[in-house]
Amino acid sequence: MTDFPQTVHFTGTNTPVGIEWSASNLEVTGTIPEEIDGAFFRAVPDPAHAPMFEDEIALSADGMIAKFDIHGGHVDYAIKFVETERYALEKAARKALFGRYRNPYTDDPSVAGKDRTVANTTPVWHAGRLLMTKEDGLGYEIDPETLETLGRFDYYGALKSQTFTAHPRIDPVTGEMFFFGYEAGGLASLDVAYGIADKHGNLVSEQWFKQPYCSTIHDFLITERYAIFPIFPTTADLDRIAAGGPHWAHQQELESWVGIMPRYGKVEEMRWFKGPKGVSAFHFLNAYEEGDFVHLDVCLSDTCAFPFMREAGGVDRAQQDVGGGLTRWSFDMGKPGESFESRVIGPPGDMPRIPDASQGRLHRKGWYLTINPQGGPPVLGGPVGVSFNMLLQIEPSNGRIEALPLGPGMAINEPVHVPSADPEKEGWLLTVVDKQVGENRFDSELWVIDAGAIAAGPVARVAMPMPMRAQVHGWWVSRQQLDQAKARREPAHAA
Description:
Blueprint: E1 21-23, E2 28-30, E3 38-45, E4 63-71, E5 74-81, H1 85-93, E6 122-126, E7 129-133, E8 140-142, E9 149-152, E10 169-170, E11 177-182, E12 191-197, E13 203-210, E14 221-222, E15 226-231, E16 234-236, H2 238-242, E17 248-250, E18 255-262, E19 271-277, E20 284-290, E21 293-301, H3 307-312, E22 324-332, E23 341-346, E24 350-353, E25 366-370, E26 390-395, E27 400-405, E28 410-412, E29 416-418, E30 428-438, E31 441-450, E32 458-463, E33 474-478, H4 479-482
Antiparallel strand pairs: 1-5, 2-32, 3-4, 3-33, 4-5, 6-7, 7-8, 8-9, 10-11, 11-12, 12-13, 14-15, 15-18, 16-17, 18-19, 20-21, 21-22, 22-23, 24-25, 25-26, 26-27, 28-30, 29-30, 30-31, 31-32
């Protein structure tokens, strides 16, 4: 193909931009609080070339790493492609060489055996190192100052898993990073690798176990004592992939599972709980312990949220008919059995966020995105084809909800949380908001929102002079953390 398909994966907020650019001292309306000092990194999928197939999806787009650098109330911006092996090969050929989403059997023969990941899902910061990640491969290290790509990162050969999650969890007290990779042993394998990196960034543990079936394990959770692996019935089949078919197909009649193990224990200690059939989730607000109970808050839907995954499994459901809600699953670790309690605690939505300091602990508040039916038709775009248009704040203990609805033709991307130096304040949320101004044309702004008063709207807005493509995930890195960046130094060791 020489032109981009006119499908939802390449129109709306998914309209390709593919431009590397930077700008200093962007125009700010309002005042950015002085304590917001650091960088908001964003993962932006954006295809550098038209795809090989008409039915390509947004999740296959090349990764771009974007950075809002905020200091003294001023904002600079830059965005660059992540120079993965795949990107470099296609750049040299001036065309797409890799075929359908996560299917190497559809690639041009010239790239057989090459690294297919586009590293387009989450920027991850740990121990002075910035990685761009996507769960089908290893992360790529990025220089946080220049945004130059430094190469694949495998802990200097120590990591044996072929994959690295886009959703590791970092303990705010110990500084350790807990992570995993599924299909760790190869395409459609049942292998899951569970890893721990210490606060200095050294790999200290990697254990492998088998999941009940090959599912897309997009996210997982930790508490102070446990690691939690939810398994949902969107499955991979090697024969289907080898025949040129889709990697994922949702199986509505298959049970879900949740595996819970001591986070410093052995995988043989994993305890499996059986969940409802056909449900799906890609992101979790948080998990924490209360006595013998482990609670996890999940953005649950009654079927898979991705249309192409539903269709591959024969599930005929319109996007607006997908049900669900923010749901609390509670597991009594002091009793035998494989059942658990479930109750809805909030409206449907996704892209949840808590303060980093609450990771694995009781959270008082959380924020996530939803679709407001009073906000007019949702803007087309984003990973599932429709965009969110309302920000929610929830207090799980009492169910209290506050909302920031957007106007017609507007879309909001996942926020990041910036803590406040004042313990009486909730901190700040940073998010990019898009407004449609023409066919496949949008004006975009960075919004700074008081996390304790979201209904009041932004305290500051930063207008973007160039088109923006829909973000997946983001990460906030403080100025102090940036000053400690390793940028490809040898791994540090405890003194």
